[in-house]
Amino acid sequence: MLWWQTYSIWVVVSGVVVLDMTDSALAVTLLTFWRRAAQLAFGGFAGFIGDRLGRRTTLVLSQVVIFAACLSLLLLLEGERLNAWQITAAAFVIGAAWTVDAPARAALVPDLLGNRLTADAMLLESLTHSVLLGAGAYLAGWLLDYFGAFAGFSALIVLTGLNLVLLTWLGRLHVPQITPVARETVMQSIGGGVAYLRSNRPMLTVVVVSALINTLVFPALSLMPVFARDVFERGAIGLGMLNGSFSLGSFFGLFLTQRLRRGMSFYSIFAAGTMLQCLAWTLFALSPLFNLAMLLQFLAGVGQAGFYTMRNVILLTSSSNEMRGRAMSTVALSQGIGLPGELVTGSLAESVGPRFAVSVQGTVAAVIALAIFWRGKSRQATSP
Hints:
Elements: H1 2-22, H2 25-53, H3 55-78, H4 84-113, H5 118-147, H6 149-170, H7 186-199, H8 201-216, H9 219-222, H10 224-231, H11 235-260, H12 266-286, H13 290-318, H14 324-337, H15 339-352, H16 354-382
Helix pairs in contact: 1-2, 1-4, 1-5, 1-6, 2-3, 2-4, 2-14, 2-15, 3-4, 3-6, 4-14, 5-6, 5-11, 5-13, 8-12, 8-13, 8-14, 8-16, 10-11, 11-13, 12-13, 12-16, 15-16
């Protein structure tokens, strides 16, 4: 809960502060660009690090890095020396910590509950994700609007500090790790993970589609401050409302996903969520009205619930205990592969406007994703 609250507040605070400093859509998208660069740089090693250090130790060290980065920004702000490039640098550092943190956190779930309850655990985790992303986004917008950037960065430090305290306490409890601490080299770990991914078709499809969405669709999230301020003229509160609508849709989508599990496969729910997300983002970019945009954000959140939850469930349940950490590190890699999308989206938004950038990329993503799912369905139908 604290992790997602920190993430949602960081996205809003860093985006709004950089936009106010630079008045540049490209500068805002560069925040996500460098976060993705960190994911690309460290994603291949994330599973190895979690297995070598131990998952709980990895979580604690990651939070120490995030806490230090947020504290540095607050001190720079207080000393009136904070610049946009420093926030961008912090985005890379925080992105690196998140890249190592996320696979270890997800891989810890079967250690705590076993494989049988993994899908239920992912739905519960997604529930906190959807609720707190919306709450965090609105809280961040309110803090910025009424108290300024100092309050926003202070909130990040408080949340990260609490997270660090709880994780330190967790490290003292006895929780068996099913997978033994890794003894192989980094290259052996990465090579084994790649070979395993290529031999597992459901996992490979999920990773490829995830890379596609992270390249063409998710960069739109980086432009939310631009849509809120320049397109719909609603400011920081409007940004919180847009992000809150997306999170509310994710919350509703989780209950829908839970019901669909009774009659649909994990893979089918993942495909449906992916397509809904692409189409909703495309129509959002073309919306002439703020209220309609909020509704489309809600629908995008519904699709996100199916996409995000089933992606993690498929990767966790399709992989062996030994490969679980490395399987989850492919999520960070697929997000890092979306690195060029941030530059393309930011450049298009600067030259022809954010509406064109997001709508065209959403359409292209929908067409390619549909082709991938159709091909996968055809192969399943022809297989013995």
